[in-house]
């Protein structure tokens, strides 16, 4: 946190801090007083804030130079409890403060990784259109529910789809995508099974460094599943996706690379961050493990073959 901002926050809560100190004031060592002062000040503070709080807790009202020197001595001689904040002269923090910051960052990353409402709604609409593709009028109840919940743009997608106006469906879906990202690419209803089969066949024979196949094991079908389900209107349900692959008649695939329901379910456990982000953003993630690279190279090749990514 910026020192100036932190100082401002400290000032705002200063009177509350002294009110709490009266309850905490008791016979305590100087070290205990310094620790308690930093806890009251949020785990990190400047000496100017630490002095009055610690002195109040110690019970010495003289604000003498000796007491201040003692507080500084406690801070400097207890590396397991306190440390000076790097590049911020006069600032000190509890050792536990960094751990709390780390935990907070992890929580923020987890919250950031949760799929956004617009992402969910687009995937939901794709699944509705897949489930009711042979009897579109059955989706009418879901269209009513969307309107009742004020999802008008999403309801318009089903309006166009039920009326078999495919261009209008595409435009309505793009409108939803624009809410999340101005550059998001949606491949819904634009790629034929023949084009997708051709792209997958090329993927299965593609080679990378050292003339090795980039598609090496059955878990990498998860990357294919994610690309096709996200951009090409393929089923989100894994059993339905496998049936779709069977219908494509991809030919003989060796047992090591044969797609299975179990491999599709197991793969995302190895790459949890990929499971919560779109394939065209995988290259921006920090995870560069072997499991990540195996999924990334397959997704990247397939997206380029399909024209989703240049």
SSE map:
Elements: H1 3-12, H2 14-24, H3 30-40, E1 44-46, H4 47-58, H5 65-76, E2 82-84, E3 91-94, H6 95-113, H7 117-131, H8 140-148, H9 152-162, H10 166-180, H11 193-205, H12 221-231, H13 238-248, H14 261-270, H15 272-275, H16 290-306
Structural notes for this entry:
There is one protein chain. Helix content is 62%, strand content 3%. The chain has 310 residues and is mostly helical. A three-stranded antiparallel sheet has the order 1-3-2. It is elongated, with a radius of gyration of 29 Å. The model is unreliable at 3-12 and 181-189 (pLDDT under 50).
Produce a short descriptive summary.
With 310 residues, this protein is mainly alpha-helical. The protein is 62% helix and 3% strand.
What is the count of β-strands? 3
Q: Averaging pLDDT over every residue, what do you get?
A: 78
Structural class determined from secondary elements: mainly alpha
**Order of SSEs:** HHHEHHEEHHHHHHHHHHH
For the biggest β-sheet, the strand order reads: 1-3-2
* Fraction of helical residues: 55-70%
Query: Low-confidence segments, ≥5 residues, pLDDT <50?
Result: 3-12, 181-189
What would you report as the Rg, rounded to the nearest angstrom? 29 Å
Principal-axis shape equals elongated
Compute the separation of the termini in Å: 39 Å
Strand content: under 5%
- Kindly give the count of domains: 3
| Largest sheet entry | 3 strands, antiparallel
Query: Helix count, per DSSP?
Result: 16
């Amino acid at each position: 946190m910026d020192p100036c901002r932190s100082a401002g926050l400290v000032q705002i809560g200063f009177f509350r801090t002294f009110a709490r100190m009266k309850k905490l004031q008791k016979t305590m060592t100087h070290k205990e007083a310094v620790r308690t002062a930093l806890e009251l000040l949020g785990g990190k503070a400047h000496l100017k804030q630490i002095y009055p709080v610690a002195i109040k807790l110690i019970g010495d009202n003289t604000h003498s130079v000796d007491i201040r020197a003692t507080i500084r001595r406690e801070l400097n001689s207890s590396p397991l409890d306190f440390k000076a904040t790097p590049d911020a002269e006069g600032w000190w923090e509890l050792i536990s403060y960094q751990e709390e910051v780390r935990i907070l960052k992890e929580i923020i990353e987890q919250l950031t990784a949760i799929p956004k409402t617009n992402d969910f709604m687009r995937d939901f609409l794709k699944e509705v259109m897949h489930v009711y593709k042979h009897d579109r009028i059955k989706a009418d109840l879901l269209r009513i529910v969307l309107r009742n919940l004020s999802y008008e743009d999403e309801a318009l997608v089903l309006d166009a789809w039920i009326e078999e106006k495919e261009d209008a469906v595409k435009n309505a879906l793009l409108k939803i995508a624009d809410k999340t990202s101005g550059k998001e690419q949606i491949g819904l209803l634009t790629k034929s099974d023949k084009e997708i089969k051709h792209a997958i066949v090329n993927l299965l024979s593609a080679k990378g460094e050292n003339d090795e196949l980039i598609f090496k094991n059955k878990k990498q079908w998860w990357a294919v599943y994610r690309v096709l389900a996200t951009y090409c209107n393929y089923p989100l349900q894994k059993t339905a996706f496998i049936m779709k692959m069977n219908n494509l008649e991809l030919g003989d695939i060796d047992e090591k690379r044969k797609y299975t329901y179990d491999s599709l379910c197991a793969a995302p456990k190895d790459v949890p961050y990929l499971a919560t982000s779109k394939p065209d953003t995988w290259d921006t993630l920090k995870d560069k493990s072997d499991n990540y690279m195996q999924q990334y190279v397959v997704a990247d090749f397939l997206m380029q073959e399909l024209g989703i990514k240049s």
